[in-house]
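Bench notes, afternoon.
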Amino acid sequence: MRIAMIGTGYVGLVSGTCFSEFGIDVVCVDKDPSKIETLQNGGIPIFEPGLDTLVANNVKAGRLSFTTDLKEAAQDADAIFIAVGTPPGPQDGQADLTYVYAAAREVASVLGDRHTVIVTKSTVPVGTGREVERIIREERPDADFDVVSNPEFLREGAAINDFMRPDRVVIGAESERARAVMAELYRPLYLIETPIVFTKLETSELIKYAGNAFLATKISFINQMADLCEAVGADVHDVAKGIGLDGRIGRKFLHAGPGYGGSCFPKDTQALAFTARQFDRPVSLVEDVIRYNAERKQSMADRVTEILGGSVEGKTVAMLGLTFKPNTDDMRDSPAIDIVAKLVGAGATVRGYDPEGMEEAKKVLAPVTYCSSAYETMQGADVLLIVTEWNEFRGLDMERVKSLLSAPSIVDLRNIYNPDEMAEKGISYSCVGRPLKGISHV
């Protein structure tokens, strides 16, 4: 089979590469000549573990190529995937579908005589597939095509495994021909008995938003439980384990922290809430999650202020981790953005280090002094602040940390250290939802 993938961003590049690993001929298309040139020369414009090797192997095998020419890519294609960005629109929560609809018009201009499946891989609101179909039909009333929704469920940092071994594949397809094409594309997953869920267009589009909104709600729930744990002297780790072992709840997304960020949860919860308001069916629970998460990120800076005695003015904060999660360079809606802004606004100096995200961080953070290692940030700093749980931060030499800091103080927003062990080492330690040694609330 042969497919064209429009867009070489995170979703498009990962999806296109993984399809080529399935043995499908894939041509990835992008309007940005510099991005295509980078890919043709063996470079990777995003950071995703293992992607560089997978791209190189499939380019070498002749199954994966890159071009700026959509007509060339679409020639003899069984399916054309639209995987372009859907950034926030002009209204609160509205998704900007400019790039999706522009891609639809371009697709219409290059369709040939054979039946072609047009697949929206981008995260799009309910009704987008129908509009894509209308646009193409208006441009090419004679064309033989079907529009399909096939949302992605890729976690940054684990995207290749998520594509190759997904929990499920959701396909909104309403003709037998379209279903047959999509089933053949995903045929390798039938061998590992991956559930393939076929639905109508609107259902598929809503599944993506509903899934992300549920996970965002789950994160916010455990964060609120962490706040309660701090008040009553309970341990949120044990609470999470105790409820997560219930098969109806599950253990994933029950890690207390500074709030969710990234390219999906913030944007998708807002877009779902916008759609619900449009149809006069407001999702008040999701609206509350959005508000709480914004407040949560802002409040994390207050933990630094507390450990420093009520003021950060004139103080130096050593910050480890800037991206919204480890194993990515993505800074979109990272808690670090709000935390740094509040600390700098209150008069603090922030030194930061992140294994992969510093170049992206420079584009969005308030003034930060960027360092070349974790320990460099700590030299003479008044407090160490852990924002992202990169593996290299999990085994810091605490004696060295104490020798570098002006005072042995750590604020750990990811709970990667044990409060009792920190107390035994003589470190003033603040974490999220876990009781500190010697503190009793009874």
